[in-house]
Amino acid sequence: MSLAHLKSLIRTIPDFPKAGIRFRDVSSLLVDAAGFAEAVERMASIAPQDIDLVAGIEARGFIFAGAIAGKIDAGVLMVRKGGKLPGPAMGRDYALEYGEDRLEIHDGQIPAGSRVLLVDDLIATGGTALTSCRLIEDAGAEVAGAVFLIDLPDLGGAQRLRDSGLDTHALLTFEGE
């Protein structure tokens, strides 16, 4: 299956969640069994080697992280929005366009020195991904790389991660959008 075909499986929803935004809906790829399997296979193939945990960012990142972890024989770490974890958590606040948000992981779940792959469905400005990286590093692990299904290069997030020294890859790009 070609990358062009995979890209064609992603719906674009105009003016969601607000006017002027073109939302990239991966649910149309997820319901296509062959397309989803191909996307996971390709994302796993561009990931760094010797990964202990695959960290998925809430919520669509969980889907891809679990599937990739199965391919590369790694565990799954969920990076959650603040206040969603039932046990002791460690977290980091970060700035949004209008306000702040928080990301958390369970305290003590990452063995020190673990090599972690960060995964999400899409990278836009990179704020959530960078905060996730810092949170994982706060726990004593190494973020060995990041893999995304989609990059919106005009928003600069993947480049921000690369500029921070992180090995960063995306399977598909939607430029000029």
UniProtKB/TrEMBL annotation:
Keyword Glycoprotein among UniProt keywords? no
Cite the GO molecular-function annotations of the record: adenine binding; adenine phosphoribosyltransferase activity; AMP binding
Which key words tag this protein in UniProt?
Cytoplasm, Glycosyltransferase, Purine salvage, Transferase
Q: Which InterPro entries match?
A: Ade_phspho_trans, PRTase-like, PRTase_dom, UPRTase/APRTase
Database matches in CDD domains: PRTases_typeI (cd06223)
Database matches in Gene3D superfamilies:
3.40.50.2020
Top-level class of the enzyme under EC nomenclature = transferase
* GO terms, biological process: adenine salvage; AMP salvage; purine ribonucleoside salvage
Mention any one GO cellular component term assigned to this protein in its UniProt record: cytoplasm
NCBIfam families attached to this UniProt entry: PRK02304.1-3, PRK02304.1-5
Known function: Catalyzes a salvage reaction resulting in the formation of AMP, that is energically less costly than de novo synthesis.
The record's listing under PANTHER family reads: ADENINE PHOSPHORIBOSYLTRANSFERASE
For this chain, the family text in UniProt reads:
Belongs to the purine/pyrimidine phosphoribosyltransferase family.
Question: Subunit arrangement?
Answer: Homodimer.
Could you tell me what this protein is called?
Adenine phosphoribosyltransferase
Instruction: Name the source organism.
Output: Pacificimonas flava
